[in-house]
Amino acid sequence: MSLHYFKVFKYMKPYLILLFAFISIPVLNAQDAIKNVIVETYYISNENDATDTTGGYLEPGSKTYRVYIEMLRGYKLQKIFGDDKDTLIIKSTKNFFNNKDYGQLFAKNITTYSLRKNTMSLDTWLTLGQVTKTAAKTYFGVLKSQDMSGSIIGGMNNDGGSAGIPGGILTNNDSLAGLPLTAADGMDTMLNVPENWFDWGIADSSIFGSAFPCSEFVSTDAYLLNSGVTGVNPDNNQVLVAQLTTNGEISFQLNVEVSDTDGTITKYVASGKDSDNIKVCTYLKYPPVYNCGCTDPNFKEYNQKYTCSNTDSCKTPIVFGCMDPKACNYNPLVNYNLSALCCYPGKCNDRDISLVCPSLGQPQPSIKVYPNPVSIQLTIEYSSIDNKEIKYSIFNSFGEVVFEKKLGLVSGSFTDIQEISKYNTGVYLIRIYIGDSSYNRMFVKN
Length: 446
Fold this sequence. Notes:
26 strands
């Protein structure tokens, strides 16, 4: 740390530590484990696929969808269920397709051998991550756009169905389904394989079996569970829960159980009301139910559960600072008080006054640091007509520099985005150097 930094934080360090340890920073909205539900169009069938009679007639134009639940890093999906309070619903306006040759209720029972047979790869099933297995490997679902391992199904890997189509079937490359199955099959391996599978109330006569054609599964007494599974990529943590093939329009209402990094289990349901261990997640209902409100985390009215933005709902900007009118850095616009930052004339204990009273002595340029609090990415904006060298440093609560960046000569304005998802929770100071002057902003990492 340079002598300049040491001088500044020699006086500021105890107060920042006090702020970090004792001041309760309000958590505006605790982050739910479920970030999103993704419905991927996996494949669109064509006339060649319809020639197969062994697996059962597959109407041309039928779409195969894969449903993924995206969670925060480290969380595990353990159960999909329906009970007397939260109904499990999966529907289509037309019957679902189930392969009559090798079809399964659950993807965990599918072998890679059967995936190469006729239209088996388009079977309708439920799962918790796992899609197939061999004696040596277990495969899990990934979005085709993220599948870098190639494909073991479709085309030359397929037996051509009952008509023996040269080159195999499942070769349609309709752009509406993204990458063709011959290039990416949406499967990859990982080390952590779930155990202790159990199921209840999901029979062969349901939409997941081939006994009777069905267009809906509605149950208040059904579940599929295992020991818990994460996504193949731990960062996006997307876990596959269903594959659905139909020539109709799908809809669903899912309920799941998720365990956090400490093993605590929380139920997420598609509708109802929140309680101690149950949270309503509108993502679990498809097509999406648009719940509009303030989606800007810089405002008190922000709620991450809103699925669409209504800017009129964002009324109260979040302002951190000192709310004591006796302090020299009192700010009447502050709505979240950080009392340890309050500085009183003659009683600042030799703290650098420019750090706690940046408005004293010089005009403040237009600098924005948002969102605040922040979880993943921090945006820094500056606007001026001057042409000056700009750099900034980020300090933690111990006065240590955790990041520095030089932006060079900037004329007009700049926007810089800093990834802070790996920062520890707490209070940080960002000092922005513009020419010979410096300006301070504080933000909270939650």
